[in-house]
Amino acid sequence: MAPRRRRGGRDGSQDGNSSETDAPKNRPPNTAFRQQRMRAWQCVLTPKLIVSIFTVLAAIYLGFGAYLTYLAFTVRDISIDYTDCLRDAPKGNGTKASIPPDNVKSHFSSSALAAHPNLDPKKMSTWHVEERNVTFEWSGVTAPRNICVISFPIPEELPAPVSFYYHLDNFYQNHRRYVNSFNAKQLLGDAVSKDVIDGSTCKPLDLDTLGSGKVIYPCGVVANSMFNDTFSNPYNEQNSTDYVMSNKAGDISWEGLKDLYGPTTYSRNDIVPPPNWEAAWPNGYTNDTKLPDLKNWADFQNWMMLAASPDFHKLVRKNDHEAMKAGNYRIEIVDNFNTTVYNGHKSIVLTTITAMGARNIWPGIIFLIVGGICLILDVYFVLSFFIWKPRKLGDPSYLSWNQPSAAQAGST
User: Fold this and answer.
1) CA-CA distances (angstroms) from residue 384 to 46, 54, 109, 390?
2) How high is the pLDDT of residue 294?
3) Which UniProt keywords are present, listed alphabetically (predicted)?
């Protein structure tokens, strides 16, 4: 059989494959940049460089860790767990009882505690319960409530700024459905229609299911579960004066949060409060009550800033300018929020603030641990490279990337 004749190309050539003629056109220019022959610095990890790196890292981490730890130990604070106040504290007869020592945690200087043994918070803190009429600030409603009165000593002056937090544990604000359970337009003040709210992410707290069928404002589980204990200013029993602390929006909440809220355009007749807000609005949004002013309600704004962990603090009051003098203080708490139903606890916390915030020793400890590891490796490499197994190093100039290129060699 005769061999098949090769088909000619379009240009009349006998071979349609013109790669040989196209190759010079497609080849990149013979430059150092296009042919990747540019000189570049590459790190050669010599023993001296390794030791230097770990020395610098150890110095940075140990120094910063020591500074963070020092700041944490300069914080002065007191925390009192009042979860069982209504159950365990004496009621009505003016008798005070000592708060269990395990409920009180404090960090004050040992010299202050030694100089004022009668101001030891663990030994001298007391509580009792009173029942009297209370006016809720955000609704204007006056109703009889149980008040947990906590008396505690401060053995040394707390320099400004002084912050007042409440602390909750075992409360999961980071649950997926919980996080989405609100309506942003409603919070901005829009009168979102009943049809839109019904079956939205606010469900099951979207509409009143007790007969009226009205829109819940603000809807959703987040608003309904808001922490609604209220606190008085700390009262100095020696001087008979309040240590005044601000709870205004912008002081205890971020200024930008106000932009997420606005005065509602709902009619009072079209909305009802969330079920758990019954203490402040027992008869709903009637004409003799105030509608919730979400734009200026800092406690509500802080609550809507959801915590990432089930153990969290939220700011309720703050004094940026005046120191809190040593002495005996009293705080009155309108106890509305029941944490025992989910096996949780609640506490009040008074604390000073440093450049790194409230007391937290763990960042400093973590930096010290990392710095210690770097220091141990540094010592090991010094001993290994220079004492135990010293050896002559190769000359880096003989490495391939430090050699002149082939083109340069040919030209010479």
Assistant:
1) 13, 14, 45, 7
2) 92
3) Membrane, Transmembrane, Transmembrane helix
**Would strands 327-334 and 215-216 be described as parallel, antiparallel, or unpaired?**
unpaired
Tell me the pLDDT tens digit for each residue of 140-165: 899 999 999 999 999 999 999 999 99
Provide the 3-class DSSP secondary structure of residue 366.
helix
Residue in the block written with tokens 């980071």: 174
34-42 long-range contacts (CB < 8 A, ≥24 apart) are 37/405, 37/407, 39/401, 40/401, 42/401
> What is the C-alpha to C-alpha distance for residues 130 and 86, in angstroms, rounded to an integer?
9
Give strand pairing partners of 80: 104, 348
What is the token pair recorded at 140? Answer: 């204007």
Give me the pLDDT at residue 249, please. Answer: 85
Average pLDDT score over residue span 37-56? 84
**Cα of 262 vs its chain's centroid, Å:** 25
Strand ranges (DSSP E) for 116-240? Answer: 126-135, 142-154, 162-169, 215-216, 230-231, 235-236
